[in-house]
Predict the structure.
Amino acid sequence: MPQPQDSMAQDSIDTAAVLKCYVNGERDFSQIVLREAELNNLILSGTNFSHADFRQARLGKTDLDRACLKFADLSEAILWGTHLSAADLSGALLREADLSGAILKDACLDGANLCKAILGGATLTQASLVGANLIEADLRSISSHRTDLQGANLSNADLSYAQLNEAILRDANLSGAKLCRASLRRGVGQDFLAVDLTGANLQNADLSYADFTGVILRDTDLRGADLTGTVLTDADTQGARFV
């Protein structure tokens, strides 16, 4: 470690110093400042970056599996194809971050701010985004299996062609969201869970040609939604509002 942790927490250090510390066994980089840093294609798994400053940093294809990034600021950061499986990003700031193709399997993003973030093609299998802010986020073609988005704000988000298998979207705000040709279809067999949109707000959402086969839409607000070509076979619409 070039400097004691207290000093490192307050001042920026260069990428080479971080890598040297990591190779030497250091894993605690909490509160470190790495704004605009070049950290592409590195292995930094299992590292503590809680409260770190990564604004506008480049972390493309870096291995951050199991890393702690609680309350870290990753605003406008580039995270193309970054490995974040089982990472803790709860409360993190990811405004306008580019997470295209990122691997977020089993990651925790509860309460994270992903407003206007780009997650096109990202893998969110069994990730938790409870109460996350995803306003105007780009979630086109995401791959999702049992993702927990309960209470998340997805207003005006783009989920076109998204695969939302077994997702939990109870009380989520999807007003004005685009789910054109998205698949929320329940799989065949008792082991498959229905996508749960109980109490969700889908006012003025674009659901055209989306597959809602077997979806739970109890007490869901669908007023003004575009249902052109939407498949609602076996959907539970008890208490849903269409007009």
